[in-house]
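Practice problem 4.
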């Protein structure tokens, strides 16, 4: 099994245990505290490993280890500086945000310290280094770090006793461990690969900028792009908590986790189909690629619909089994989230197809538009439909995203076929 699969299985165990121990409201508070920290991390801290992969690959190709060392020093300083700003800002805003979201005084008092959980996201530089070093095995293994720490901590709480405060400590330790362990792994890889590490002084930083033309513009664009991608998904739980309270946020968090099983098969199919579609497009077999995309899309949609229907029929039983009877109020919410995941089941495949057809920007633009433009609907739907409003929002978002992505893929295929025919005619 892959690291992601192992992490997913471990996560299901500690989620079920923590939900049963905490109950729906405290489970919601736990997710809101963690969600606020990760939201601020995505907003302020450095996002994306692309500069390391792009410019680091060039340095490795030229066997210029000194240039790679200076690049690593520059990116490390930048990432750590932005992380410090993100942690300080999160700690400063913890009190007013906690009041707005209805946290207890003990939780609000702990929230500034929890800003250190942002360290879980401060790993773009080491992750990029492992990418260019080809150590995907270490990246896969690292994905189990946070789930393992959370599971271990949860089991200790079950044995020794504890409530929300204990879970917050465990979640914080897991986040810090995830971030710091990635840096430790990257340091070890540098040692065995003979990559020397230099201190980020003025000369080192100026040299890194000079010998990597366009790096400042590149990292600004990629960081902004990644921030936009993560903004809406991370803002949604906070909006739910603000409008409807921690209990609804807890129900939503659990529904999203359970429904996530629907995203695994289409993502795997999209990854598997990429090379096939890419080969067909490269060979000029556009019509054949169209048939491959259509057949795969229908297969994924059918499978997603069947799984969603079966899980929807047993929604109450699933919630009772996983989290206990207190979470049964989220049965309809789970059904709506499952429907949304079923509708969006083929979107990874269509995104893959657009990339193969040299239109990766189309998928990004559609994703951003659907995420940002539908976000204002969430408070309105929550006010009108209560807990289920979050599910209706997810469904509307999925329908818009899937519909626009399907249309863009169809147009891209038609345009490519027409271009090929025109080229042949000439």
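Answer key:
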């Amino acid at each position: 099994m892959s690291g992601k699969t192992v992490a997913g299985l471990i996560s299901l165990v500690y989620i079920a245990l923590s939900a049963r121990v905490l109950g729906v409201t405290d489970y919601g508070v736990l997710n809101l505290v963690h969600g606020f920290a990760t939201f601020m991390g995505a907003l302020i801290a450095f996002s994306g490993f692309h500069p390391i992969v792009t410019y680091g690959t060039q340095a490795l190709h030229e066997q210029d280890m000194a240039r790679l060392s200076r690049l690593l020093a520059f990116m490390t300083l930048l990432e750590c500086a932005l992380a410090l700003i993100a942690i300080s800002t999160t700690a400063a805003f913890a009190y007013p945000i906690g009041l707005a979201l209805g946290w207890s005084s003990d939780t609000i008092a702990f929230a500034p310290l929890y800003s250190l959980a942002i360290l879980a996201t401060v790993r773009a530089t080491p992750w990029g280094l492992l990418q260019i070093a080809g150590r995907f095995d270490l990246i896969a293994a690292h994905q189990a770090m946070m789930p393992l720490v959370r599971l271990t901590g949860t089991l200790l709480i079950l044995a020794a006793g504890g409530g929300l405060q204990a879970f917050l400590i465990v979640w914080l330790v897991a986040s810090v461990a995830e971030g710091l362990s990635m840096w430790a792994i990257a340091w070890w890889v540098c040692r065995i690969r003979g990559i020397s590490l230099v201190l980020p002084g003025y000369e080192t930083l100026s040299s890194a900028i000079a010998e990597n033309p366009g790096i400042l513009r590149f990292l600004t664009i990629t960081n902004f792009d990644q921030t936009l991608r993560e903004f809406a998904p991370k803002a949604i739980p906070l909006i739910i908590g603000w409008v409807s309270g921690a209990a609804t946020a807890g129900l939503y968090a659990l529904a999203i986790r359970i429904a996530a099983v629907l995203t695994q098969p289409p993502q795997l199919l999209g990854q598997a189909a990429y090379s096939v579609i890419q080969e067909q497009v490269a060979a000029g077999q556009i019509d054949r690629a169209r048939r491959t995309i259509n057949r795969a899309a229908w297969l994924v949609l059918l499978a997603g619909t069947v799984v969603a229907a079966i899980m929807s029929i047993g929604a109450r039983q699933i919630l009772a089994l996983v989290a206990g009877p207190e979470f049964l109020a989220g049965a309809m919410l789970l059904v709506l989230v499952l429907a949304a995941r079923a509708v969006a089941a083929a979107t990874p495949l269509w995104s893959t197809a657009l990339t193969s057809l040299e239109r990766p920007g189309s998928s990004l633009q559609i994703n951003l538009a659907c995420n940002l433009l539908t976000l204002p609907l969430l408070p309105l739907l929550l006010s009108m439909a209560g807990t289920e409003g979050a599910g209706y929002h997810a469904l509307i978002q999925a329908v818009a995203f899937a519909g626009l992505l399907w249309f863009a893929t169809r147009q891209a295929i038609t345009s490519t076929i027409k271009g090929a025919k025109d080229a042949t005619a000439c």
